[in-house]
Amino acid sequence: MNILRNVSFDAASEMKLQRFQKLAVKAFKRDKFVCQCCGFKSKKFMRILPFNGNSLAFDQRDYSSNDPASYKTVCTICYESNRLDFALT
User: Fold this and answer.
1) Is the pTM of this model over 0.90?
2) Which end of the chain, C or N, has fewer beta carbons within 10 A?
3) In this structure, is residue 7 part of a structural domain?
4) pLDDT (tens digit, 9 = 90+) per residue, 4-52?
5) Is there a contact between 51 and 71 (Cβ–Cβ < 8 Å)?
6) Which helix (H) or strand (E) holds 23?
């Protein structure tokens, strides 16, 4: 999985946006609340990560134009571990 580590799609302010919530819920339901990295299942500790086809050129705040298929459901531990290199740079 090619994850865009330099983009955060679920910052606290973004989680309040209705467009983001709809996108996240679609991804969570599609993946049955199972982390696509480690297999952990939970309805409480999940986040979404962009992968592959997403370009950094699009407006990161306009979730209505984004396809849920471009996101993966991941648990908070996998989310943070996938973003470690971004945090260190």
Assistant:
1) no
2) C
3) no
4) 444 445 556 666 777 778 888 899 999 999 999 999 999 888 988 876 5
5) yes
6) helix 18-30
